Predict the 3D structure of the following.
Amino acid sequence: QSALTQPASVSGSPGQSITISCTGTSSDVGGYNYVSWYQQHPGKAPKLMIYDVSNRPSGVSNRFSGSKSGNTASLTISGLQAEDEADYYCSSYTSSSIWVFGGGTKLTVL
Amino acid sequence: QVQLVQSGAEVKKPGASVKVSCKASGYTFTSYDINWVRQATGQGLEWMGWMNPNSGNTGYAQKFQGRVTMTRNTSISTAYMELSSLRSEDTAVYYCARVGVLLANDYWGQGTLVTVSS
């Protein structure tokens, strides 16, 4: 099972919006809504930001939103803030009953 | 509140084994699966396998088949991940995570650094 494909890096200025893509196949992202997104700050454990493609856990800012089209899922962060600077990972459950992660995207807030 | 507390850092020699623990609290341990995920320094997240604490059933990533064993002790709400035949490439932070609603990893342990060095 190959890793999901994410851009290595994205950047944006405070107040702007950015979108991170996550491309898989019909056996993972395209076949299930079990897509989740994680935020990881340096030296910290990952934190769940989005589950089931577009749902936010309690306590996560509504500036974070998720969507999916075909085999590609996306995470959008609106109203960028300095604290959003982190690594972001997508993940999907797969037809092989395993999980797969994306390679990660480093978000820089300019 | 839900918490997963992992055991401390380990240093192992190549060829040895390591066993990392993950103690759960704040919820019914046997009601949620546990995933194990690792992250080499400067690298991305890598899924290793899952365990159902109620049944003990497990599923491992093909890459780790034959080298990883995931177990649990329900009396103390603790999950374990043992990795054998360690090599330098296994140097990483190992995380346990609870598999919550709709198969997302909703709570994570703090991570355990395993260093493999001669």
Notes: The mean pLDDT of chain A is 95. The radius of gyration of chain A is 13 Å. Strands of chain A lie at 9-12, 18-23, 35-40, 47-50, 64-69, 72-77, 86-93, 99-101, 105-109. The first strand of chain A starts at residue 9 and ends at 12.
